[in-house]
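Re: the 966-residue chain
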Amino acid sequence: MATKVSKRSSGGAGYRAGAFPTTKTQLQAGTGLLCFTCSVCFILSIICTCLATLLVLVDQKVEAANYQYLLTTMNTESVPDLSFRLPKEVKPLHYDVYLHPDLEKGTFQGKVTILIDVLNRRSYIALHQKDLNITSTALNTYDREENFEFELLDLIQIPKYEMFVVPTKNELHTGLYHLSFEFNGALQPDKIVGFYSSKYKDAQNRTRYIATSKFEPTYARRAYPCFDEPAFKAEFTVKLVHPTGDNYGALSNMNAECTQINQPSPGLTTVTFAKSVPMSTYLSCFIVSDFIALTQMAKGLNDRQFPVSVYTTRTQQDKATFALDIGVKIIEYYIDLFRIDYPLPKLDMAAIPDFVSGAMENWGLVTYREARLLYDKKTDSSAKGYDVVTVISHEFAHMWFGNLVTMSWWNDLWLNEGFASFMQYKSADGILPDWGLMDLFLIEQMHSVFVTDAKLSSHPIVQTVSNPDEITAIFDEISYKKGSSVIRMMENFIKPEVFYGAISSYLNKFIYHNAETADLFKILQESSPDSLNVTAIMDTWTRQTGFPVVNVKKSGNKYVLTQKRFLANPDAHFDSSESEYGYKWTIPITYITNNTSKPTLVWFDKDAKDLVIEFKEPVNWIKFNADEVGYYRVNYEPTEWDILYNILRHQHKTLSVSDRVHFLEDVFSLASASELDYGIAMNMTAYLKQEKHAIPWSVATSKLTAIDTLLSSTISSSKFKKYVRDLVNDVYHEVGWHVSDTDDRISLKLRTTVLRLACSVEHAKCLKEAGEIFKNWIQDPRDIRPHPDIRDLVYYYGMHHAGDEAMWRIMLKKFTVETDSTEKLKLMRGLAAIRSTWILNIFITVATDENYVRAQDFFSCLIAISDNPVGTPIVWDWVRSNWEFLVNRYTLNDRYLGSLIPSITKMFATETKLNEMESFFARYPDAGAGAMNRAKALETVSNNIKWLAKNSRNLESWLNSHVQNN
């Protein structure tokens, strides 16, 4: 029995490429239509839309019927012990994969022969497949004196587990076998996972098609039948078929060994790649494209050299130079740090036009979304440079963390993603020490995940996952950002030289195999010179939800520290017995004082009532969690906060950038959670008038703009805006809109941060200048665009405050013809900024058409519109009305669909909106990979409502005493 792929329409009508509405009436009438020119077309389009909808519904019913048929005909008696996990008694050793994609038809044919090791006597073999049509199956003995073929019974499909079973008429004995399948499927351009089709326009405006893959976490089964779990590592020999000529070629994890022209038929070429090292299925990769490469040699150990290449479309090759240079430096940095060579003969990077994630660490062939890899110094911002560097350093870290040593199961995903997320900053800082990347770590990683982890809806780093939706959902901030934050903390208390020696031991011990969290901790523990019980310490951070706030009380020369779980909602109730550790942590407490600038480390055990730190002589001030290395907050008594505030105001450079950032982050978060009076937090901001570093201003911008949004419906809104305008005024005039070639990286980042804050609180000069630059550009027939560093701000705030319908239409045309993926995203965000509800409604409809906005960017478009106060309710209403379209296009297993809801509702702060969300979730109870995100969204809005009730009056009182009326 075989499951056939049903190719569906992506759903939702949109504008025909190049067909622009020209008047407001046409725009209003055109929502969801394909033609604007006449009433006949209008009626025909409605009929077509209705028919299309009817066909989709029929298709869905047919598929549902087929699915039910498969379930009811499943021979459960023959597989009584089958569950979500594949049986461990059958292991793949080698895959011989043959794939022949037809780029024009959007289909592929394939063959796979898997060498399996059967470890017990059995009557069936279970493995994964999804959306494949299996046309033949064979099972043969292997490496015996006389090999023979087994007689097989009908295949049994188990859609619930995305598995199928190969039953045998006679019992299998232990030993080696060849299991072979022939199959075909669709290159699914609407899903952009599995083996799929991507397209782009070349220099002659011809549409070019490629076939590419994205298999993590559970999508390899969409390309070939396989044992699609990370612990089933095997070697791969791959053959790919591509059109002969027209610049087409094939890429896979390994180097090409053999090229056969006119095979399997004239006009086709078959490429055979070298046998791979043992790896998990999710790391395999197949690309058939007309890309061209730039190549440099990198140095391995013992004078070995290997090629590093960047593959791009022909017109974008010049944008590959920066990534190639960085890639060579990064891979050499890791080889030197771990003292373990990169094990493959080559390392390719490919910029894919349609790509669901930022990047994917396929071994030897890392794939990226174009906007995350390609960089043009003339047209791209300095921030884009940071982005390219960190995404390459993240993916290359996976060559060791994830590829060389792989987690045994997805519950330990943080061993992959936490390490890669930490090492991306460590390595990038190592090759670019003047870029300040470790300071960025705080705001991009730790502060970001603090928001998520301070909610009851959070989850432990290590948690049970038991279906594809839960696997997909665990690719979240906890695995990545909390994982990276506790690794940074661990590196600090173990000490770097010991830590990386232990990491090398860990990698060498489990090379080409799988490991669990306990394996890592055991090796770190054995390496620790202080006999630290690393497992006991780190289990409190990885196996329970949340993090602590350490409260500090001073008594003479003593400081008494206590701990409790920090929650954004102080009224949230939880049961301490739910955690094995009672929501207590073993905390590495570090501190500096006015007498000691080198941090002192002491341990606060989870079972201790408190921790007392006593000095022989009084200290003027003490600052806990030096450089915010520890994953915890610190709260002082008001008198101590006053002392620290005075240091900031009069001697802020006495403290490191990280310590200044830490004060701002903690004081506002504690006030928001009612652990501290908001007056203390607001007082702390006064020092910012002397601050010239970008990172503290980034934290202030984040905190102040969030408050500004929440206060928008209160009487305090105008006074709050005025306070922030006064606060930012001096530094705004210092940075201005002019970007100089002599500006250092801190100045460049400070400028964009300050301009964003000033414009967001309606600083008159900021908006005027943004509007003037915007108008000059939009009316310039030469289309000379603003400097790359300020371009997205000009597009957004220029459109928001000075843009009209005519300007929006001009910008839409520029957006439509733009070929650079990064510039296209900037223009898209600018279009989302217009203060017109009917145009924003039209823009959403335009964006559903992939001729305008690729499916991979549609969520970003919706989020950008929702970030515009005018667009927030529009997006919410549209998503609720078009949920079935989104599910059909992306599936409920898509984690980006799952994270859409909290992104577009994060600033809701009324009972009405909370009720709307609850009603929407009740209407569509199946959340798929978005289940935790729904809980997070509800908790966020509930907290916003409580925040307003608790804090708006306190802030109003503070503002009345600190802001003079105009």
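Confidence is low (pLDDT under 50) at residues 1-77.
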